[in-house]
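Appendix B. One record, verbatim.
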Amino acid sequence: MWGAMNSSPPVAHSGKENLILSVIVIGSLMASIDSTIVLLAFPAITSALHSTISTVIWVILIYMIVTAVFSTQFGRIGDIYGRARTFNLGFAVFTISSFLCGVAPTDVILIIFRAIQAVGGALISSNSGAIIADTFPRNKIGRAYGFTSMSWNIGALLGILLGGFITTFIGYRYIFFINVPIGILATILGLRYIEDNARVKEVLDIPGMALLGIAVALVSYSGIDYASSGFRPLNEVTLVVGIIAAIAFLLVEKKVKVPTINFSMFRNKIFKNSLLASLFQGLGYMGVTFLLIMYLQGVRGFSPYFASLILLPAYLLSGILAPFMGRLSDKHGSMVIATSGITLMSVGVLLYILLLRTNSSVYLVMLGSIIMGIGGAFFWPSNLSAIMANVAPEQRGAASGTARLLGSIGIIGSFIIAFVAAASAVPRYLAFAIFAGTSNVIGGIGKGFVNGIHYSFIVLIAMLVISGIFSITRGVENRHERLYSNGKEPS
């Protein structure tokens, strides 16, 4: 039935709610795993496809960029054509393209299929948050987002662990094949249990969608190309064109009736500050993980698989705590809990700035990552629940997509910061080889590499501080209060 949604989420039995949540968790887990699972397979893929590390690196970068470009659009499409329909289509695309990635005969074809796989991942992730908000009442969504945060965090490390294990003992192609049976099961469950929202009778903002996609893709490409090759005409031109496209996008959005990003949502201060806190948290957090992997492999000489095991306790602890933190945010709001999480993350980075050296104990690395992991358990579910609890029901798809867009931009930016720092201390080709686990540095070069990492940590902690400022100034919320009553926002 067409028309605006009622302000209250649909009533669902707890058993059905949990089944829907299980499908969402599987989707988050799969999308998260595939954002990192190829990291430890770089050498195997390079050898099998007769490629180079600088080319194969795009197997992961294209996934990040496509996810960022399409997240907002696909969330909006879910509002218009139905979130369940869009979400289940995402699972089907993701599953089929995973199989195609596994059988890809060349590096270029693999990158193309990874881009298609990312389209499926964007369809899943940009609508999952809105489906949860549709399913659970406003004072219970923090718990649900706690489980999705748990699956995302565990999936990120599980991808690294699985990538190393499968590549070593089975073969790199099975890091893609593993998605197929899981995707088929999740698609069947999604078709059976997830119901569509009442759809909004609107048209897509095609010009705005195109301009936003061009802007994000070109700006992201210019940054990544600079990190790998330094300043050159190609990345300078793409940066300028990307900025022009972003300005054109803002001008177009002011004139269209139904914009791709509904900026009216930003009138809610809690929503706006929570989104910005998420953006800067992504900029500050993910780069730390990348740099720690490079430190453990390149400076300490550990294998990629052993390096991931050192980081395992932090991810497990974060995953266990996240649902509890989500429940606390349901009771007490997000401001204090999310800001405490950002503070803990900053403490973890500060520990590395002050104490990390070429011969530091691995227990120092583990301690810092655990502190940051606990901070993530505080921040992610409470902040995401604040975003989705403070937007009108008919805008949940757009809000979920916007949140995923900013989160993806944060990951890409953090990735660039990490590589720029590494490439400033050692030659760029060596930085890529270190990250792929095919080389390491010793002696004075190792010391210079660690100094470069320290400078990067300073930039990353600055991003976290900015995130903390947005978090603490978002305002106090009451999850037990209806966000909209009779179609009007309460004063």
